[in-house]
Amino acid sequence: MNVHFRRLAALTLSILLALAFLTTGHAQTYGSLVEDVLDRFASNDALCESAPQQSVNGVYRCVELLSIIAYRLDDEGAYGDLIGDVLDRFASNDARCESAPQQSANGFYRCAELLAIIAYELDTSGLYDSLVDDTLNLLSQNDARCESAPQQSANGSYRCVELLAIIAYELDTAGLYSDVIQGTLERFSANEAACESAPQQTVNGSYRCVELLATIAYTLGGDAV
């Protein structure tokens, strides 16, 4: 179990740095907010006494960075209330959490909700709205069947993969990275078939999130993979 959590802690750090790159790439004026999040990431890490606590630190900082990105993209203020609602749920659920696994589940669910908002913001043509709706419905339906916080984390991480894939497709307007995105989704499915536990599923989801974030970063940077 600790091996999985160590891997997850390393992955959430990779996600965190990738998200920081994305945010500052959109607007340098948000750089100070990103720096504040990264400072909290470092200071909280010094206080962590276990890998599960480090995982929580990583995924919680991802929530904060995703909220910055969502606010930055909301030029007309159409999604401000929705973003605020997610952050309110984030804080209220954290106050009720009694363990690191419960906090991780809270973080993954809020990440999925914020990624959905970002996907809506980027979908100026309305082409992907139904896919985002379906993913949010799946998050809710699967949550009703979850019997533990680790299962909830797996559910949340899997929905993050699906939403990041949608975002990657939205940003890849020229279709240059469609094969790369599809390759990540195929690994996602193949590894899911081999998973024997919720922690393994969460690792699978987190690995694929990193791959998709890398693809998104390449797309925004105009570089080839």
Summarize it.
This protein has nine helices and no strands. It is mainly α and 225 residues long.
Question: Can you describe this structure?
Answer:
It is a single chain. The chain is mainly alpha-helical and 225 residues long. It is 83% helix and 0% strand. The chain contains 9 helices and no strands. It has helices at residues 2-26, 31-47, 51-73, 80-96, 100-122, 129-145, 149-171, 178-194, 198-221. α1 packs parallel to α9 (198-221) and α7 (149-171) packs antiparallel against α8. It is globular, with a radius of gyration of 16 Å. The relative contact order is 0.12. The mean pLDDT is 88.
Average predicted local confidence, pLDDT: 88
DSSP strand (E) fraction? Answer: under 5%
Uncertain residue segments: none
Radius of gyration: 16 Å
Q: In total, how many beta strands?
A: 0
Order of helices and strands: HHHHHHHHH
State the major sheet: none
Shape: globular
How many H/I helices? Answer: 9
Binned, the helix content reads over 70%
